[in-house]
Amino acid sequence: MAPPFASPTPASSPSSESPPPGSIAAWRIFLRFIGALLAVVIFTYWAAAGANTGFTKDKIALKKTDEVTGIEFVEYQDHFLPGIEFLAAGTGLGLALIAITFFRKKTKHTS
Question: CA within 20 to 30 Å of 34's CA: 6, 53, 76, 110, which one?
């Protein structure tokens, strides 16, 4: 039995800064969740907005026909249509957030 004046062991100390070996820190779990959520939200928005495989457009062309002459003409309407680079940037950012959680701080072992 340990004497009542003995200091607690470092493993049982509630003020230890690093989690026990084999566990994941809460900020790593949080960043992985945010990264995955960002990638899914960006993909869902891109797919719902039309899944444009070209570049992002801020105007779309609408073909209309003149009622009197029957001539077709193009009219441009303001409309945001996210392109493939929007999808790549958003998904890449989400995956980068996930990837940085796998890098661990190197600890120095002194002997």
Answer: 53
SS3 category, 14: coil
Instruction: Quote the tokens at residue 88.
Output: 């790549």
Q: Is 8 helix (H, G, I), strand (E, B) or coil?
A: coil
Residue 35, helix vs strand vs coil: helix
For helices 84-100 and 26-48, the axis angle rounded to 10 degrees is: 170
Q: For 29-59, how does the pLDDT look when each residue is reduced to its tens digit (9 = 90+)?
A: 999 999 999 999 999 999 999 899 999 999 9
Examine the pLDDT at 8 and tell me if it is beyond 70: no
Phi and psi, residue 24, nearest 5°: -105, 135
pTM score: 0.66
Residue 65 bridge partners (DSSP): 72
Residue 101 burial (CB count, 10 A): 16
User: What pLDDT is recorded for position 77?
Assistant: 94
